[in-house]
């Protein structure tokens, strides 16, 4: 059997994977069930054989992943399978598909748009999402905002990048594990110029503890093939210093970045981590409709890159420690393009 095109863990801990048998043919393997063979003809995938009773509809995400992750220009795909209408309705309500195209007593045909597939959290999130928290409001000073959930430990996101032949992952920073690298990165000349956070190990240990204790911020380590290369701060905008400068919404998020390892500075790796980080922020809470950036006004390279990736330049703002360009990315735009 060839290596899996796409693998995911289901909610019960079992796995589902798709393997290519030959061109335009493959098989879906789900633990506890016999393999389902399928054939693909352009934008139609036909599952051969009857779908067993109690088959997990979310396992079909592996078939969709095998399609969309290797056919980036595909905007949608239809899946035809021998199952009842109840199975089709369940699959749509679980977010696996978005449209029931046809149904009779023995067969259904479903549609999944590219944006539907990429907005499903199951293939990507390694920890429970913020989305599960009910909206309960509190004040931080004079700022009223939803109560934020506590930070998960360990890995929160993982994604295979076939074009780069690598895996990108995010995990909550662990000072015991990451302090040395964080200290080295923050003392790099270019990083120190923009972040103004150069310092000693003790100073950086205190800084990270402050970040981990702040419910507004999620400090993260980015890895390629589990090798740390970057530090990210993902934050909720409603209680941040940028909130007074635009029409802030409850679940807007912003971010800061330090790429500390030169070998990961190329344009391919840049687009890889950028798209994955934006993906994670949108997946972590579907109520997040906008992502904000506020780079220093003289950071031309970053501003130009963000504009090229769909960020709109709202205005220039004067913060206490810097003059910044305020930029915004809309959820609909992000998921409407190939990832």
UniProtKB/TrEMBL annotation:
Keyword Amino-acid biosynthesis: no
Cleavable signal peptide: none
Keywords: Transferase
Domain Acyltransferase MbtK/IucB-like conserved: start-end pairs: 171-218
GO molecular function term, any single one: N-acyltransferase activity
Chloroplast among keywords: no
Pathway annotation: Siderophore biosynthesis
GO biological process: siderophore biosynthetic process
Pfam family, any one: Acetyltransf_8
PANTHER family hit by this protein: LYSINE N-ACYLTRANSFERASE C17G9.06C-RELATED
Protein name from the UniProt record: Acetyltransferase (GNAT) domain-containing protein
Organism from which the protein derives: Pseudomonas saponiphila
Biological classification of the source: Bacteria, Pseudomonadati, Pseudomonadota, Gammaproteobacteria, Pseudomonadales
